[in-house]
Amino acid sequence: MAQRLIVVGGDAAGMAAASQARRRRDRRDLEIVAFERGHFTSYSACGIPYWISGLVPDRDQLIARDPETFRTDFDIDVRLRHEVTGIDLDRREVVARDLAGGGEVRERFDTLMYATGAVPIKPDWAHTDAGGVFGIQTLNDGAALRDWLEAEPKPRRAVVVGGGYIGVEMAEALIQRGLTVTLVEKAAQPMSTVDEDMAELVVGAMRGLGITVRAGLSVTGLEQRDGRVSAVVTAEGPIPTDVVVLGLGVRPNVALAEAAGIPLGPSGAIRVDRRMRVPGVEDVWAAGDCVECLHRVSGMPVHIPLGTHANKQGRVAGINIGGGYATFAGVIGTAVTKVCELEVGRTGLRERDAAAAGFEFVSVISESTSRAGYYPGARPMTVKLLAEKPSGRLLGAQIVGWSEAAKRIDTLAVALWNGMTVDDMTALDLGYAPPYAPVWDPVLIAARKAVDALAALGR
Amino acid sequence: MAQRLIVVGGDAAGMAAASQARRRRDRRDLEIVAFERGHFTSYSACGIPYWISGLVPDRDQLIARDPETFRTDFDIDVRLRHEVTGIDLDRREVVARDLAGGGEVRERFDTLMYATGAVPIKPDWAHTDAGGVFGIQTLNDGAALRDWLEAEPKPRRAVVVGGGYIGVEMAEALIQRGLTVTLVEKAAQPMSTVDEDMAELVVGAMRGLGITVRAGLSVTGLEQRDGRVSAVVTAEGPIPTDVVVLGLGVRPNVALAEAAGIPLGPSGAIRVDRRMRVPGVEDVWAAGDCVECLHRVSGMPVHIPLGTHANKQGRVAGINIGGGYATFAGVIGTAVTKVCELEVGRTGLRERDAAAAGFEFVSVISESTSRAGYYPGARPMTVKLLAEKPSGRLLGAQIVGWSEAAKRIDTLAVALWNGMTVDDMTALDLGYAPPYAPVWDPVLIAARKAVDALAALGR
Predict the structure, then answer these.
(1) Which of B308, B429, B440 to mutate to test the interface with A (most CBs of A within 10 A)?
(2) For the domain A122-248, what is the CATH code?
(3) Which chain A residues touch B275 with a CB distance below 8 Å?
(4) pLDDT for A412 beyond 70
(5) Which of A47, A167, A370, B289 would be B118's cystine partner, CB 3.0–4.6 Å?
(6) Distance from C-alpha of A345 to C-alpha of A384, rounded to nearest angstrom
(7) Helices (H), ranges, A263-383
(8) CA–CA min distance A316, chain B (Å)
(9) For residue range B79-121, what is the model confidence (pLDDT) as tens digits?
């Protein structure tokens, strides 16, 4: 008799796991049932801001694979609009509510794949009946926001609350749609994924676009008029608006796991071993935005919800469930984004992370250009490196620049991944031609500056 | 009394060495004399095609640092238009001819920096009195070609001989100036710096631009009329033209070294140790396009004339001459170029190199896109990887793509530099956001495909 894999959550991690398991075990060996409470499988949440801006015209472009593909090509019993409400580890059963048809189903499992993702952080003040307040996690969130922006009376002003990647991307999307946009950030600066000196460059670019940035300010409530949001309330007074977008980040969606007795790690997300197995809980696996993973530089568990990790982790879990062997090697915190033409990349530790991990380090900032100075389109690029002292080992890197900047972080990410020192990095054989780099690539210039900074300390 | 450093050749390598030596030793300790037979110090030869095309309007933009800067800021006695004609290692003297003023000077040295660069390969048939035949190594070459292109009667047709980087870039430059361009390549295909399957993509793009590519064809002579070149002669008949550009590559400029008894390596270039010292010849150093260096993947000495290596090597030599410590770590053959919008990157070994070095390997080609498929501007990208079997160690990589492709080679170059296996590479934490990459970056997709190919062999 076939064994049974139940997948809880049918987005990137869950469906990657399911399809990898299927590649290795056919249906006579393994039945696969995937429960997804939403309307879609495997869509690109990261693409939503570009759909809002209109750059991506059609919602369906964001759907990587539709449920029918999983059903017919992978023989996976995908059940959309089914919310798993309970997991019984002793009886090896899940209970799911049919959100569309009503009623409840109960399914036994031999193996459980927990991939519930993350839930947006929603403060108390955001729970309101007023129209015009939007999260932006799901395609339905995006659709609701788009409808609101297009319906009469047309919103003219927007407030984005939260200045992380999604907040910044949404601020850009809304200003591109012609709204007047204010971004409110509780911390001293938005874009806290990079150090403050680098974030300043991003904030400058945002202001250049016409976005009003209000940092060091908390939203404490909403005002409404005729059932529509009319302002966000702050300690510095109300900010009038016609639409509020929440970009306050996410937390791992672990309520169900906690209730079932699946242990969490110190980050608050689910702890997994290298093969994406939940340690101490037999035949339960987890992957994606609901798990924590090893930061290879700090050695600490971290929760970094990102589609690229979810896909890799799901794949690893699925290979293992399928009887193969794969491990997830951890993360180093690489991320890229853009604010219109300004590109931002980061990898490894920021200054505060490095200090928290106990490292001593130097940090240097160097200025260079994307191309040979004389080549048309050469634009400024700022590279920041953190290097451990006295070893010179790279600990983190950040890049901000006006073109061909963001993906240069990959060069630094691979150096970091391999534990290179900044001394070693000065020798790297990187591509050189005038349209692509100065004869000393910005990465090499930055490494040389870090070497000089370490030498100046006498190490 | 001060010691004396004589620099033979005042371009990138020589002047980098001179200025690094000066940073560590002042003039009371070290006199520095630099002889340069040309009119300039430290110019960007790689930029010449873009000056010819008009993209870079002004010749002086290609000059990185003028002689006056070296004289005043670095206290280096730069003597332009002085060709060193002899080196006497026993008497520790060089003899130089003053090409402008006439006469000869004789200067003693304690330390010699040999940085004569490379000389363009010029076949017998190219030695002609006819006007309209140009090399493109020096700024004066470039100026002569520009004058020819602008003078009456205006050339309408061009033949570029040689399909390496410079040949391809010159073909593009000339077609951008509105000429009818034929590129003649002796080998079966131009762009032999990448494997034939990848070169085919480049040739396709060149043809798309309107460049006529004649491969597998040798030029054997020239025809002229009224003192002007009128055709190149080939086995398949003459190709009429108004201008001929030679892009046949370069060879190390070692005549002077050979005459002086400085030993050459197996590549025909000067052999140096890790500190850029000529082994067995006291106080003689060499760097730049005249030396050979270690290929870190094949372990063999190679001659790869490229500005980025020349700058690094010169710097290393200068630090050592200055009493510091630095080594040159070798190269892995990274290079990038473009043919209009088509970008090409390569690193490590091609198939023929890997076979020649005795490696067994698999090679895979994968197709992907530069950005998330749904993001505007996503363009196809082809990545080829060579991986050793059974180890899976990356041996080489090539990328051809329509945007954001060339500099992605750096990611692979750093992986190669660190000896990563393709298995390890599938785990890399690379930057992901829809404007910059699909959720599986092209590099990761390629690595996965290589892993699959190795697995299929049963390893």
Answers:
(1) B429
(2) 3.50.50.60
(3) none
(4) yes
(5) B289
(6) 10
(7) 307-321, 351-356
(8) 10
(9) 999 999 999 999 999 999 999 999 999 999 999 999 999 999 9
Q: Identify the pLDDT of residue A458.
A: 77
How far from chain centre, in Å, is Cα B42?
15
Look at the domain A3-42+61-118+251-321 and name its fold.
Answer: FAD/NAD(P)-binding domain (3.50.50)
The dihedral through the CA atoms of B419, B425, B428, B430 has a sign that is positive
pLDDT beyond 70 at B209: yes
Tell me what ipTM this predicted complex has. Answer: 0.96
> What is the model's pLDDT at position A288?
98
User: Which residues of chain B form CATH 3.50.50.60?
Assistant: 3-44+63-119+251-321, 122-248, 335-456
Q: Which CATH fold topology does B3-44+63-119+251-321 show? A: FAD/NAD(P)-binding domain (3.50.50)
Give the Cα separation of B311 and A229 in Å (integer). 61
Of A417, A440, A441, the CB nearest to B428: A417
Residue to test with chain A: of B65, B407, B425, most A Cβ within 10 A: B407
Q: What span, in angstroms and rounded, lies between the C-alpha atoms of A244 and A232?
A: 8
Contact residues, A window 193-252, toward B, CB-based 8 Å cutoff: none
CATH of span A342-456: 3.30.390.30
* B335-456: CATH topology: FAD/NAD(P)-binding domain (3.50.50)
Which residue in A313, A390, A394 sits closest to A346, CA to CA?
A: A394
Task: Show which of residues 415-444 on chain B sit within 8 Å of chain A, judged by CB atoms.
Answer: 415, 417-418, 420, 424, 426-437, 439-441, 443
Q: Do B431 and A413 touch (CB under 8 A)?
A: yes
Confidence at A459, pLDDT banded by 50, 70, 90: low
Inter-chain CB proximity B429 and A333 less than 8 Å? yes
Which candidate from A374, A410, A415 shows the least CB-CB separation from B56? A374
